[in-house]
Design brief:
Blueprint (H helix, E strand, L loop, with lengths): L4 H7 L1 H20 L6 H13 L4 H8 L3 H13 L3 E3 L10 E3 L1 H25 L1 H20 L1
Antiparallel strand pairs: 1-2
Helix pairs in contact: 2-6, 3-6
Length: about 150
């Protein structure tokens, strides 16, 4: 069967995911606004906290970011005192880690994140949230197989 404009308009997964992404991002960003933090930055802080010393390539791979997006965010976060570059033998790579201020900000953000997380689960429904978590695991597994 040949897809029609109506079918694409009513069923396109890409359009729906992009729409959901904007709605969900706005919920988290609104919750974090008082901390002058965006959820995209919080995700980088969390990845960095988990890694200890974060290498840009590893963060990009983990968060599915392109290098320029990460670089732009890291520069802003360094300027705000949340991240610092770690000296490295390899001059091409600039690993970074949380500063004391970055760790404190991350800890302060947890209650706002929790509120946003609950709101998103309420809006989307627990079943959808669980399916999303499993879908991401499948994507990661497929990436690992490549």
């Amino acid at each position: 069967m040949k897809p029609t404009i109506d079918t694409i308009a009513s069923e396109c997964v890409a359009v729906r995911l992009r729409m959901l992404n904007r709605v969900v991002t706005n919920i988290y960003d609104e919750a974090l606004r008082s901390l002058d933090l965006k959820v995209s930055q919080m995700n980088i802080l969390v990845a960095t906290a988990k890694m200890g010393t974060a290498r840009p390539a590893a963060v990009c791979e983990h968060l599915h970011l392109d290098v320029s997006t990460l670089s732009r965010n890291v520069e802003r976060m360094k300027a705000r005192g949340w991240l610092e570059v770690v000296p490295d033998d390899d001059g091409r790579s600039q690993p970074f880690r949380l500063t004391r201020e970055g760790r404190k900000l991350l800890e302060m953000a947890i209650p706002a994140w929790s509120q946003a997380q609950q709101r998103v689960k309420t809006v989307l429904g627990d079943g959808f949230t669980e399916q999303l978590i499993h879908a991401v695991k499948r994507v990661r597994k497929a990436d690992d197989a490549l």
